[in-house]
Write a structure and sequence with these properties.
With 828 residues, the protein is of the alpha/beta class. Among the domains are: 137 residues, no CATH class; 178 residues, P-loop containing nucleotide triphosphate hydrolases (Rossmann fold); 79 residues, Helicase, Ruva Protein, domain 3 (Orthogonal Bundle). The strands form four sheets. The chain has a 37-stranded parallel sheet that branches. It has a 22-stranded mixed sheet. Strand 62, helix 7 and strand 63 form a beta-alpha-beta unit. The longest helix has 22 residues. The N terminus is likely disordered. Keywords: ATP-binding, Nucleotide-binding, Repeat. It comes from Streptomyces sporangiiformans. InterPro entries: AAA+_ATPase (IPR003593), AAA_lid_6 (IPR041627), ATPase_AAA_core (IPR003959), Beta_helix (IPR039448), Carb-bd_sugar_hydrolysis-dom (IPR006633), CbxX/CfxQ (IPR000641), CbxX/CfxQ_RuBisCO_ESX (IPR050773), P-loop_NTPase (IPR027417).
Length: 828
């Protein structure tokens, strides 16, 4: 071309090796000579020639260029041919935007694992209808002061993050879709704060939406997250997020995860089809939920842990659990508030446990609960005001010392037992009505206390108020009506009562002719002259391995002495060799402690143990007692038990296993970490299994914090021997192996006898011999549960007994208490 020729009006040919098309630039400047059209063989040349406001229309083709847009131009593909312009350099960032440009209708392909496919660094550009197909560090990255508007863009990046907004970046993303991501679908960090509107994220290997770090935040409206291998939404490290009208479903990990001072608001959202926890909060995180639903979850619907962690739920619904865990779990000092909520079709509705944990439930409905609607244990507190509980096995159960709270103005309908108070728990129950319980309306036993003011029981199949064991319970202005076995029963478990013990009854009435004592008389304390309650009055602990309450038991203050705990160990049926091993170990620790006090050297005793044996042989019980013994000797701070298995320790992707294992170890700090079926962490065909990561993390934690936690690994004998052989690092950290032998028939009979005694039954003549024959003949294969089988046999006998006695018009005390050989179940 001549020197005078304006390059912006020149038509370049197709001989450039850099491109397979031409770029047409329409100049829109005010100068007449710039109102022309030029065509360029490369995008770089066109961008260099263009000025602010110019339009670059790219012809179809593949462009192996690294583009940098630094002016306020329009860069677009031809209309009506989406995807026909392909930006695909061999390395580096294919497209960088540093101005408030408009970029649309492009296909961008990246190959550089260390760089994003599209990078927006400055300005407020618009990106529209861009398809990003790449194997890059990020499909689309926004950083710094950039505030783009991104519309109808798709990202397919199976190697890295779908969309990354970081280092103070922001912008609005409308109707965008991440169709695949090797890490998080959308990641927000470094103080970034984007807004997402009607976006979809799916098939990500990490979290769907992730925010981490102080001042990092995102707002999502009308978005959907599904088919991700991590958490659907993950907010950590002081980050904040707001979700409105969003769906999170079909994740592999938890639906929503909050950790370390995270703050999240959910409004009109739906979380469902989650195999793990629907929502999990830890470490001072705060969640506010409004008009949101949680359904079809495999573990907890809401899982709330640690002091300072809090959930406020208003007008929410949690239902249709697919697992065996409580719908709402509050522990380790956390707090939950449920206002005008509904929880139904779940195994248990609300479990609150650990000192400092609290749940407040107001004007809410709990129904279709297979086990316990509200369970309070280990020193926790629950307050229910104007709530409605129906169709549950147990309405509310205050389980042990220090556990309490208030039930006020609540109704409990269609349960086996309305309210249970046991083992030193001391709740206040005011103006509550229990209607049509199959057994007792209110049941207090085993040292339970409680104050019942203005309460009412109608239509009970058993007693209205059933208080046994001389419990110091207070009843004031209570009323019973149409209770089949009587309005009030105050039975002593036996023996002389201490002066001043027993229930206090004031101004209570009944429609029975023999009613309760008049208020002017002394407190109503009676001996066990009337027939005891049926087994159903006190639901036993569930025997499924998922039972959460076997995980922790903290001795009630003052702590028991090691002698007292060893006495409980000695009272267990069988386990003679186990008792000898534990006593020998305890003696060594006690003597070592005394030698130190005397200024002498003490032998170092490794306290970690291996328990081998079949299921149901008492391994968990002995582990709990062992922790209590060590606490009584001052070796452990608390002595509580935390029980975990492979599913609690092993994550789905790299890094998550170490986090889970650390969390389990921290929860057990000061006590015992009991790992059941530990051999599952090292399967024979492990391949790339993450169980090895859990083992390595555990070994390091045991070394770094050797005085803080005692670890017990347990499982079948042969499998545990293999596990220790293939993991010498683990084997070297355990002092000894204790083998739990299977129970012999005589020991199984003794367990049934203990169960019968505990629940006020007796074996009729000949029943003991029939049980011995039954336990001798029962198959001892892999399904044999030892002590669990004995307990299940007793429960089956009670069930058959109930079916037999229910047909009697006026059963005698013997009819109600004697179990016969004919009550035995069929052999499996």
């Amino acid at each position: 071309m001549s020197a005078s020729q304006d390059p912006r009006t020149t038509r370049w040919g197709h001989n450039s090796a850099m491109a397979q098309g031409t770029v047409q630039v329409t100049h829109t400047g005010t100068s007449r000579w710039r109102r022309r059209t030029g065509e360029y063989a490369s995008l770089a040349a066109a961008l260099e020639a263009a000025g602010d406001g110019d339009v670059l229309t790219v012809a179809p083709g593949t462009y192996r260029e690294n583009l940098v847009v630094q002016r306020t131009v329009t860069l677009r593909g031809p209309e009506g041919s989406p995807g026909s312009v392909r930006i695909a350099p061999v390395d580096g960032v294919p497209l960088t935007v540093r101005a408030s440009a408009l970029v649309q209708d492009l296909l961008v392909e990246g190959q550089d694992a260390a760089a994003p496919a599209v990078l927006v660094e400055e300005g407020a550009p618009e990106l529209m209808d861009i398809r990003i197909v790449t194997r890059s560090a990020a499909g689309l990255e926004v950083r710094g002061g950039a505030r783009p508007t991104v519309r109808r863009c798709t990202v397919d990046n199976p190697a890295g993050v779908g969309i990354a907004v970081l280092d103070g970046g922001g912008g609005v993303f409308e109707e965008c879709e991440v169709v695949a991501a090797g890490q998080s679908g959308i990641s927000v960090r470094g103080g970034a704060h984007p807004r997402l509107e009607r976006c979809r994220v799916h098939h990500a290997s990490g979290a769907g939406l992730s925010a981490t770090g102080e001042h990092s935040a995102f707002e999502a409206v009308g978005c959907e997250v599904y088919e991700v291998r991590g958490s659907g939404v993950q907010v950590t490290g002081r980050a904040t997020a707001h979700l409105t009208d969003c769906d999170v479903h079909r994740t592999t990990a938890d639906g929503v995860t909050l950790d370390t001072d995270a703050v999240l608001t959910l409004a009109d959202c739906r979380i469902h089809d989650i195999p793990e926890n629907a929502v999990d909060l830890r470490s001072r995180s705060v969640l506010t939920m409004t008009r949101s639903t949680v359904r079809q979850f495999g573990r907890n619907g809401l899982s709330v842990w640690d002091p300072g962690t809090r959930v406020d739920a208003n007008q929410c619904e949690i239902h249709d659990s697919t697992g065996d865990y409580p719908a709402v779990w509050v522990s380790d000092g956390a707090t939950a508030l449920l206002d005008s909520c509904r929880v139904h079709d779940v195994p248990d509705a609300l479990f609150v446990l650990d000192r400092g944990s609290r749940a407040d439930v107001v004007d809410s409905d709990l129904w279709q609960v297979r086990n316990t609607a509200v369970s309070v244990s280990d020193g926790a507190t629950a307050q229910l005001d104007d709530c409605r509980i129906r169709d549950a096995a147990t309405g509310a159960w205050f389980r042990d010392h220090g556990s309490g709270g208030t039930l006020s103005g609540c109704t409990v309908d269609g349960t086996q037992t309305g309210v249970i108070v046991t083992k030193g728990a001391d709740p206040t129950v005011e103006r509550c009505t229990v209607t049509s319980p199959a057994e007792a309306g209110f049941y207090v036993s085993a040292g339970g206390r409680g104050s019942f003011h203005g309460c009412r029981v109608t239509g009970s199949g058993g007693y209205g108020f059933h208080v046994i064991d001389g419990c110091r319970t207070t009843l004031k202005k209570c009323r019973t009506e149409r209770c089949a076995r009587g309005g009030y029963e105050f039975a002593d478990a036996g023996g002389e009562q201490a002066s001043g013990s027993g229930p206090v009854v004031e101004d209570c009435t009944s429609d029975e002719s023999a009613g309760v004592r008049p208020p002017a008389q002394e407190p109503a304390v009676q001996t066990a002259g009337q027939s005891p309650g049926l087994l159903g009055a006190i639901p036993g602990q569930r025997t499924t391995e998922q039972e959460p309450l076997v995980a922790a038991h903290e001795p009630s203050p003052p702590a028991r002495t090691s002698k007292a705990v060893l006495g409980e160990l000695d009272a267990l049926v069988g386990l003679d060799s186990v008792k000898r091993e534990v006593r020998a170990l305890t003696d060594m620790i006690e003597v070592g402690r005394r030698r130190k006090e005397a200024g002498l050297k003490a032998a170092s005793v490794r306290r970690h143990l291996v328990f081998t044996g079949s299921p149901g042989t008492g391994k968990t019980t002995v582990a709990r007692l062992y922790g209590e013994i060590l606490a009584s000797l001052g070796v452990l701070e608390k002595g509580h038990l935390v029980e975990v298995s492979r599913v609690d320790l092993v994550g789905e992707h790299i890094g998550s296993t170490a986090i889970r294992t650390q969390e389990a170890f921290d929860k057990a700090r000061g006590g015992v970490l009991f790992i059941d079926e530990a051999y599952a962490l090292s399967p024979e065909d492990s391949g790339r299994d993450f169980g090895r990561e859990a083992i390595d993390t555990l070994v390091k934690l045991m070394e770094d914090h050797r005085e803080a936690v005692v670890v017990i690994v347990a499982g079948y004998t042969a499998e545990m021997e293999r596990f220790l052989r293939v993991n010498p690092g683990v084997a070297s950290r355990f002092s000894r192996t204790i083998t739990f032998s299977d129970y012999v028939p005589e020991e199984l009979l003794r367990i049934v006898e203990q169960q019968a005694e505990e629940h006020e039954y007796h074996l009729a003549p000949g029943a003991g011999e029939a049980l011995l024959k039954y336990f001798t003949a029962i198959p001892k294969g892999p399904a044999f549960g030892n002590g669990r089988t004995a307990r299940q046999t007793f429960e089956a006998m009670v069930e058959k007994h109930a079916g037999r006695v229910a047909q009697l018009a006026e059963p005698s005390t013997d009819d109600l208490t004697l179990l016969y050989a004919e009550d035995l179940p069929e052999l499996p």
